[in-house]
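Its record is set out here:
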Amino acid sequence: MSVVQFRTDLKKYIEDWCATNGQHFANSKSRGSAFEDFVFETLVSRFEFDGASIDENVFRSNERSFDIILPPSGNCDYFIVCQCEMGNTGRKSNDKLSLDKMVDWFKRLTDLMADDWISNQYFQPELKNYLFDLKDHIDKFKHVKWLYVTNKRKHEKSALELSTIRRSLNYDQLYPSVETRIFALEELTELYIETKKIETAVPEQIIFQHGEGKGVYDRAGHPFFVGLISAAVVTDWYKAHKESLFNQNIRTLLTKNRINTDMAQTIKTQPKDFRHFNNGVSAICEKLDYDKNTRTITAQKFNVINGAQTVGTLFEGRHEGTIQDVEVLIRITQVKYSSSLSSDITKFNNTQNAVMAPDFRSNDPIQIWLENEFQNYSYPKHFHKIVYRRKRPFARGRNNELALNLTELAKIRRTYLTSSAEQNGNPNDIWKSKQDGGCYELVFPDSGILDHKEFVYFNFIHAIYRRLVERLDAEKKSKGEKRKSLTRMALLGVEAFHQFWKGYSTDFENYEEIENGKSSADQVFEKFWRSFFRELEKIYDREIVNGNTTAYSFVRSKQFTAEVIKNSLDLYETARDFNKSDN
């Protein structure tokens, strides 16, 4: 792939992004946001970061140029930190990266490592937490990729300037684990090619037959075949050629997630309907021949560009007794791999926004029910009215309204139904069904509604959660660098309060009114807070401030979170018993 072709692909990505998100291509800010998403997707695909999402890892608000942060996950034990600079999208543009911006970005590392710098910046809370973890990562000499990514060409002085920065600021001595690198146009093109596997080998020849009356061949222009073939044909392809079948597919999924459980279930229970439920397989080849008499297709240099998971699921289900009844839709186009049409076909067969796991759940019956229930619920005067946002982008509430999105609701509810350690440790499990090892049905029941008492209780806990966030943030600001990660303890606070309320709600005469929102929960919260924060502070200092663990690990530890909860409840009970005996 040439630089010119890469620029064409990038421009089409940005045009599609703008059209999908209702933005104007002519707006430089919109193009910049699209470029950030493109870079995010490329980095995640290339370096295999599990669980990353645009919502959580891309920061739009000029946050001191921290555009993308990818924390360690999956097989990656390092951070990636990235600034993006979007240039002209023209095929022959010769603009060069901004030397001043690049220099400022690589000097930003010294800012990050300075005492109190992070605390004194007005960052988004989630970004601030990431930066504290990043600093801790660097302090422990763990690997970090500090990147400057642009579609502009390199400046002739860029390499020299970067070398000068590293030498003058003593990076090799102070931060030997930090890899600083520039991905300008040429390097970004190479990264893109590597990610998409455009130049790897493909099967030389595929030969198969279709059933009578189940295929159409058109030789005009670019020869084209579309039809239904047996699942056995597809499984034979994979058996013979393995992953080389997908070397032109920009979304090769087989090595990580071969099975789609819904697809597998269809094979078992509704094999004859598989062709109706599944989008099938799209492929390209460099030469396509068709023998009408034998209904035989011969495809030279054949490659699947969409449908990798379909092929993988069929292969894994090849021993099912029902597989013989499964037919698959297949579409093949003859085209030169080096042509722009090949790139277009591959791209448009795989064109999709960066779809987050919650997006697939946003139209579930219970999400629609929750939207209506929050809208119609009669809130007491001392409560903010909640507006439920089940679809991105999550707009803010108006006037006295509080916006609550489905992700926030899910994490709060899962926390008190299971534990904060489980939620912090495996956040994406919320969106997986039980059969896939997740807990979606626990958080959002199959019935499509929450019991009224459960709904009211969530509103009560949500109000407590907001108080926890406010109080933890105030403590963090008042106590400086040592307490920099206190806001990460909010879900731990939810779990602790839930246990507190289960055990001691009857200590409060009007507890039913409090839980139903008819009386203020301030008195309850203050009594809980005194014991909770005292124990949290003690264990936080012992483990995090003293360097025994990080905040990232602390909130995921069942040992530490259970210790905080148990000690805080014990402390409350001791104080309560003392007050009773004193009276």
Confidence is low (pLDDT under 50) at residues 250-258, 351-355. The chain is about 50% helix and 15% strand.
